[in-house]
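INTERNAL AUDIT FORM
Audit reference: QA-55
Scope: verify that the stored structure record matches its stored sequence.
Auditor: D.O.
Record contents follow.
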Amino acid sequence: MTSVELVIFDLDGTIIDSLDDLEAATNYMLSELGRGNLSKYQVRELIGQGARRLVERAVPDASPEEIELGLTLFLAFNEEHIADKTKLYPGVVDTLKVLRRQGRQLVVVSNKNVSLCRKVLYTLHLEEFFTSLLGADSTLFRKPSPEPVLKLLGEYGVKPANAVIIGDSINDIAAGKASGIVTVGCTYGYGNPAELKDADFLIDAVAELLELPIFR
């Protein structure tokens, strides 16, 4: 099997469990707008397409002005409390260390704004593992568009057959499929398992990544 040179990770729901902090930011925003709180399960359903889409889905009847205010409130709170409760999924650090020792390039492609990605990676001491970081505002189109993935393939000079994307949602799988790279779905994340049905591989824990034939 072709060797993997470029390993593209999603962030939230894939290497970090940030649901508690996203729930807090969402409910702070809703409270400031005079709206009722959402449960953790309801907030989980909103995650995956960036902060603006989360706000739009949280307050579907809001005016454009209210959406803008909600987005400002959400982002400010989230940045201030970026990792109050956010934690790494088990096995993340050890897995990243092995992949780096194997000589593979590790990058992050997230639908979270790049400044927030950078801050949470720094706070959780993960920034040293990744050579590139793309957020929702790094390219014109975000996942499920293949644009971020294609940008990285070009920058690293890697053929699609030598790259893999790992993520917990349809956005990751769709971006990977459209780019022609290998896709790995994370069943432990925020996405509905049915969204991962087209992934080339499925893992139930981060450490299982190293057991896949593409990494042997």
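Auditor finding: record pair retrieved intact. Residues 19-80 form a domain with the DNA polymerase; domain 1 fold (CATH 1.10.150.240).
Action required: none
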